[in-house]
Amino acid sequence: MPDVREVYYMVTQQKAPDPGALERQQMRQVRSARTKRIGAVIVAAVIGIAAVALVVVLREGEKTSTPAHTGTTVTPQAAAEGVAHAFLRAFEAFDSKTAMSYVADGADLNHLIDGQVPDDAEGMSLMVGWLEAMGYKESNLSCRATATSESVGTTVECTFDFDGIRSDVIGRGPFTGSTYRFTVRDGKISYGELSWNTDEFSSQVWEPFRDWVRQNHPKDFDVMYIDDGGNYRLTPRSIRLWEQRTQMWAQEVAQ
C-alpha cells in the first residue's frame, strides 16, 4: 500500500505521486519480514543450545550424584588369610610387638612358641630373638583358609621354606615342607602352630653346628642347648651366644 503521508501530500498539493514511492514501501516491508524471520531463527537456535546444555548438565549430575557401587565383600576366609599374613610378616621381621597385636588375649601359642617359655608377649620376644640371632629366614610363603566354623573360627594353613643357623651363607638350603597352622576368630589369632620339616636341615645344618659347639666351645654348650643338644635354650644369654657362634661357624664352613 502507498504510504498515507504520501497520499495526503499528493491530495493536498495536487501533485502526481512519486513514481518510486510504492517500490520503496514494498522494500521496507520485505526487509522487516526478513529481519523478523532471522530473529526467530536466532531465538530458536539459542533455545535449542540451552536445552542441549541442560540435558548434558543433568546427565553429568546423575553420574556424579549416584556413583555405581564398586566395593567388594571380604569373605571370612579372605579376612583370616590376611590376619595370618600380617602376623607372619611381623614374625619373620622379628617384630614381636607387632606380631602379638594380631593375637587374641588368652590365645594358645604353645605349639608356635617353644614350650619352655610362656606363650605370651615375653615368650614371643624370646622366640623371635633366638630366630634373629641364628640367622633365620623364610621364603615362598603361601596361606589358604581350609575350614570355617561359626563357633571356632577359620583355620588357615601356610606353607613355607626356611633357612636357619645361617644355612644360606654356607649354601645349604632353603629347606622345604614346613607349615604354620592358625585359627582366626573375630580378626585375631586364637591358636598358632609351627611345624618345621627338619629332616634335611637336621643332618646338613643342626647336627654339624651342634657338634662344632660341643667340640670348640664346650662351656657354651649347656647355655645354648637343652636335652643334650636336642633343642635350643631360650634365654637372653643363650640368644647372645647363638648369634656369636653361628656367625663364627658359618664363616669357618664358608672358607
Quaternary structure annotation: single chain
Please tell me the CATH architecture of the largest domain by its name.
Answer: Roll
How many separate helices? 8
Alpha-beta classification: alpha+beta
Could you name the CATH topology of the largest domain?
A: Nuclear Transport Factor 2, Chain: A
Unreliable segments of 5+ consecutive residues: 1-36, 38-47, 49-58, 61-67
At the first level of CATH, the class of the largest domain is Alpha Beta
**Overall spatial form:** elongated
Radius of gyration equals: 45 Å
Mean pLDDT: 82
Please write the string of helix (H) and strand (E) elements.
Answer: HHHHEHEEEEHHEEH
General description of the model:
- Mean pLDDT is 82; it is low at 1-36, 38-47, 49-58 and 61-67.
- The longest helix has 45 residues, at 21-65.
- The protein has eight helices and seven strands, in the order ααααβαββββααββα.
- 53% of the residues lie in helices and 22% in strands.
- It has helices spanning 4-13, 21-65, 76-92, 96-100, 121-133, 199-216, 218-224, 236-254, and strands spanning 103-111, 137-149, 153-163, 175-185, 188-195, 225-226, 231-232.
- It has a five-stranded mixed sheet with strand order 1-5-4-3-2, covered by helices on one side.
- The protein folds into two domains: 4-65, no CATH class; 76-254, Nuclear Transport Factor 2, Chain: A, CATH 3.10.450.50.
- It is an alpha+beta fold and 255 residues long.
- Helix 5 runs parallel beside helix 8 (236-254) and helix 6 crosses helix 7.
